[in-house]
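STRUCTURE REQUEST FORM
Protein name: Acetolactate synthase small subunit
Source organism: Marimonas arenosa
Requested output: structure tokens
Priority: standard
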Amino acid sequence: MSALKIKKGSTKHSAYNLRPTFSDVEESHTIAVVVDNEPGVLARVIGLFSGRGYNIESLTVAEVDHTGHTSRITIVTNGTPQVIEQIKAQLGRIVPVHEVHDLTVEGAAVERELALLKVHGDGEKRVEALRLADIFRANVVDSTLESFVFEITGTPEKIDAFADLMRPLGLEEVARTGVAALSRGI
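Status: completed
Returned output:
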């Protein structure tokens, strides 16, 4: 009988090597999908995600070519590099899908989101909410004696930061569009 010899301190062949490898690291990716604008297409795309247990962090859909009847679906999801590749491959196999672009790996992209935030407050909190809105370049789109509705556009991180600052000032409600994204350049 021969025993398997492993150098002391080596974890290369150990069953207990739990250090994450590159493939174990989850990443956020923005995927743009151009599809036929017809009933049921969105349900098929979303069904791919739900059927396999993939999470969608953000989803936007709109018709982008009225004459060609195509829509663009922008999905922000996360997963290991292998999961992201699997998602893209499976999206490409859906019949009404024309193009699949992973904007995260294809180069620089512009990502923006729109949010409406209702903030209820009076006195100093009201003044502070207006001051912060000015700093974040948020617009007041509705105002009463008790509340404001702010409109803000920017990266999801900018919107998160603005919402975090508005919470102690009386943030009541938030509506977000989800990410819209395009690759930069030609």
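Reviewer notes: The longest strand covers residues 109-120. The domain at 23-102 is CATH 3.30.70.260 (Alpha-Beta Plaits).
Form closed.
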